[in-house]
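Notes on consecutive records. When two proteins share a document, each keeps its own sequence and its own token line. Never mix them. Below: protein one.
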Amino acid sequence: MNQKYDVIILGAGAAGLMCAIEGGKRRRRVLLLERADRIGKRILISGGGRCNFTNLHTAPENFISANPHFAKSALARYTPSAFITLVEQHRIPYHEKKLGQLFCDRAASDITAMLEQECRDAGVEIRLNTKVSEVRKNEELADGMFTVQAEDASFVAPRLVVATGGLSIAKIGATEFGYKLARQFGLKIVPPRAALVSLVFSERDRKRWCDLAGVSTEVIASTRSTKQIFRENMLFTHHGLSGPAILQISSYWDGKRPIHLDLAPGRDLAADLRARGPRDESSWKALLREVLPRRFADRWLETYPLAGNSDRALADADRQLHAWEVKPEGTEGYGKAEVTAGGVDTDELSAKTMESRKVPGLFFIGEVVDVTGQLGGFNFQWAWASGFCAGQAM
């Protein structure tokens, strides 16, 4: 027999949990289905196990979407302060690490325990280890009920919320199920791609730079396809480049053109060298070692030796350091990506409620939607905000 609910939510991640809580508060009978053996697996591994649960400086400019205006409504209706209030009500200690990033003092499990308690208080029914095999909508009946078929049970409700996430981190259960459902119901998809992900060098660059794995330095990362720039650390890996600056710019990389790295932010090295006196390769090397880690400085000089001690040679060397052009071979892929960019086209959804414009009662929230945050707690804030808006519409 079909078990009847007011709302069925697929996916007990950040967005699904928030939606369930809000729906439950509105006295709706909410069923939350999760294919994994516990809720919030992505929450638990985020932020090195401390969960960077929001960012104080959240603004629409911190998100990537084919429609940059879509997220504005949800972000305005559920702000970082709203989630912080919830955290404080549950007496969870937290701190600001940097750049507005808020982390738990103890562990990410504080956040999942909080959300689980809120679900209980709101009367939400959570079913774990439940894999959905099919979703149907009965168009013949006036109520247009959705039927969700699991392995051992069948559930029906007039509202279905898809909060199944993206393709990132398959080892914790990421699948393309949400995209398949969207296509099944005739919704357009912006092609998914790995975002907030390490970049892989070409074979030539791997031979040249990858033995520097573990070396880190501050850079400004940019691409010609966006006005966004990121001044943070870059890290050499055994395959290419990583670190916060690279993860950030990876979300904007078009997969074809080079990325640009300023290796000496805010420094005029040519002027510094002229002011010090002798202008030769040894003094240039000494200066580079002040700006870059020693191993990287030495390798840089081997690769790009100083072409004389003239003003022009110094200017060229300085310019090259501020505009290192790297053409990656690719990314580390979904297995290492923190999020998935792309997803359900926002033109298909109401910005206020996240409901499909084509299919009444069908909602998409969180990462499965074509809204992707920058590094630093923004993706969680989108999850809370989109989940809240859908929950309020139940």
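Protein two starts on the next line and is unrelated to protein one.
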Amino acid sequence: MKIGLIINNFDWVGDSSDPGAMLAGIARTAEGAGFDLIGVSDHVWQHPFMGGPEAGELECYGTLAFLAANTSRVKLMSVVSGVHFRHPGMLAKTVTTLDVLSGGRAWLGVGAGHYEEEAHGLGIPFPPLKERFEMLEETVQICQRMWSGEQGDERTFEGRHYRLERPLNLPQSLVRPHPPIMIAGGGEKKTLRLVARYADACNLYPTPDLARKLDVLCRHCEEEGRDYNEIEKTCMFRFGSGEGAFNPDELIEQLRSFAGLGIQTVIGFIPPVGPVARLEEIGRQVIPAAVDF
């Protein structure tokens, strides 16, 4: 099993005289501790679960570019980009740029999006859910088209929501055939079917129905003619609830149970992520044990 870190709490930014140095320190510590990837939440307002709009929130891809410059090994991923935030052509170009400048470490995390309040607050269009799912499928198709071949499949793309006259992409991504695509969400009728059809990874939550979600994904793969084993199974998880609430042995057993279900990567968040001691402790005690799961 691999362990990833998601940075989704930026409260420490206002408490630091040099937030850039602090963020770089977090990333370097995570990389040195053996984390496989670092993800950044893609919101423009902080999520209500994390303090709401009045809490701090850094823009995702600017932050990922900064992390790329301050690390050398870890994969870098949006967790995850709602399709309503960016036109697909610009999203593919942004992820390509991150991939090229990071030396081939970019992933695309993408989903149908949510949090209507932040979109309306900043004047970002927020179509109904049915349309966002249609946009999600077209977005993934466009990204794959732009990452095709040496400079993209340049034939005109004509969809219901997007039209690209020439999906040219130069320079092309370093990762071939394309940066891995993770489609997030556990919806059994639409989201997991899109995972089976297009994605390199899924992203689920450790709810009591996790095993059933994986079974549903497996059935969708059979219907789509896709090898279920080609899809990396990832799961979000909270590594403790705060200072003094971290039990490495308990966490190891939780990860072991996820591995028994078929989860291959756990992407954890540590509230607050600012202090590096928790990252170092996970690197010493948890990651070496999880490698064998």
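For the record: The domain at 2-290 is CATH 3.20.20.30 (TIM Barrel).
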